[in-house]
Specification:
Elements: H1 32-38, E1 39-46, E2 49-52, H2 57-64, E3 71-77, H3 81-91, H4 95-103, E4 109-113, E5 116-127, E6 132-142, E7 146-152, H5 158-166, H6 169-172, H7 176-189, H8 191-211, H9 216-246, H10 248-251, H11 255-335, H12 350-371
Parallel strand pairs: 3-7
Antiparallel strand pairs: 1-2, 1-3, 4-5, 5-6, 6-7
Length: 375
């Protein structure tokens, strides 16, 4: 991934005179004890600085009503249905977006429901020990005065994003839109080590393919499936970011945020192209591996055929000599019988005749086998 250029100092747009903020409706009944199970962190910000850190959703809603010009940033990890419905009632979240956030397993997308922006992202991280890619899912609700993140999986690390934002109050003072872009940046930056890890895996696979490792086919297949998932995470994100950039003028996006988003979009495009190249490379490697395996199998079959031919030739020789030696044995066995009425036993030329018969039969068999190349 190319080096990130240094960003200029953040500037906050001049704001029109603040109108009297509407009174936020009271939240629905909340299960405060359950909040603690999935709320990673909830914070209230005013002018880019944290003013409160509630320890439950109910307390977050209560304190946010005390800061009508503030912003709430609520981070959840695998929330319960009751928690999301509490958020939906408090911040007027659309039921379809809430349903998507509960079910997860969504493709990256960006949708607007009135004044609320709903974003689905697929984060990724490379696990060195297992040499595989782990994918997580992140749902982000962005409203006028709130940002809600619903995380399914270990990635990304939003605590680092929050810490970086709090260190730059000018950036955080730009509001929920700046938080969204910071989250997008964190997700995209998380792709860089994955790309490096996959590149190393492909290099190792190429070495294994030409080294004749029989288990490399399975590794190619598994990595190809991960690249399919990686494509599903990065390709839609390119269109999403271009959609956000298309709305710069309509929604009056700060100029510095515009440069920020264009920078993120450039990195996403670069990553998407790398992933496409990885998948193409894996397809070609799989084809080469199949060719090498076929050649190896053909060589083994040829070696087996040659071994069988040589064995057959040896069997021919053994069978030929066995037949040649069987002829005199047969004659000798017959004349070795102790019968009284065998005429040749008392014949003067019986013995020479038997020897001559053995020689003729053996010679005849030898000539026949020799002509057939059995000897």
């Amino acid at each position: 991934m190319s080096e990130r250029r240094p960003r200029a100092a953040w500037r906050r747009q001049p704001e029109p005179p603040a109108a009297t903020p509407p009174v936020r409706p009271a939240a629905k009944a909340l299960a405060a004890p359950a909040d603690r199970l999935s709320v990673v962190q909830a914070s209230l910000y005013r002018d880019g600085r944290r003013v409160a850190s509630p320890d439950s959703l109910a307390e977050t809603f209560r304190q946010l009503r005390q800061y009508p010009d503030g912003m709430a940033w609520i981070g959840l990890h695998r929330p319960t249905e009751s928690e999301l419905h509490s958020l939906a009632g408090e911040f007027d979240l659309h039921e379809l977006a809430v349903e998507d956030a509960l079910e997860a397993h969504q493709r990256p997308k960006l949708e607007r429901y009135g004044d609320t922006l709903f974003v689905v992202l697929r984060a990724a991280r490379y696990l060195d020990a297992q040499e595989e890619v782990d994918f997580g899912e992140l749902h982000v609700f962005v409203g006028r005065d709130f940002v809600i993140t619903v995380r399914h999986g270990a990635a990304p690390d939003l605590s680092a994003v929050r810490h970086r934002m709090e260190e730059n109050p000018d950036l955080l003072a730009l509001g929920p839109e700046a938080v969204l872009y910071a989250i997008l940046d964190a997700v995209v930056d998380g792709y860089a080590p994955v790309v490096e890890g996959v590149q190393n895996d492909i290099d190792e696979i190429e070495t294994e393919v030409f080294g004749g490792d029989p288990s490399v086919s399975r590794r190619i297949y598994e990595l190809s499936r991960e690249m399919v998932e990686f494509q599903r995470a990065t390709r839609p994100l390119v269109a999403m970011l271009h959609g956000l950039m298309a709305g710069f003028a309509k929604y009056g996006t700060d100029e510095e945020l515009q440069r920020y988003l264009r920078d993120v979009a450039d990195h996403v495009t670069h990553t998407s192209e790398r992933v496409d190249g990885f998948r193409q490379a894996l397809t070609e490697i799989l084809t080469v591996n199949a060719t090498l395996v076929t050649q190896q199998q053909n060589a083994e079959m040829r070696a087996l055929a040659e071994a069988g031919f040589e064995q057959n030739e040896e069997i021919k020789k053994i069978s030929s000599w066995a037949a040649i030696l069987f002829a005199p044995t047969l004659v000798g066995t017959i004349y070795g019988m102790n019968f009284d009425h065998m005429p040749e036993l008392h014949w003067v030329y019986g013995y020479p005749f038997a020897i001559l018969l053995m020689a003729v039969v053996c010679s005849s068999l030898y000539v026949i086998f020799k002509r057939r190349d059995w000897l």
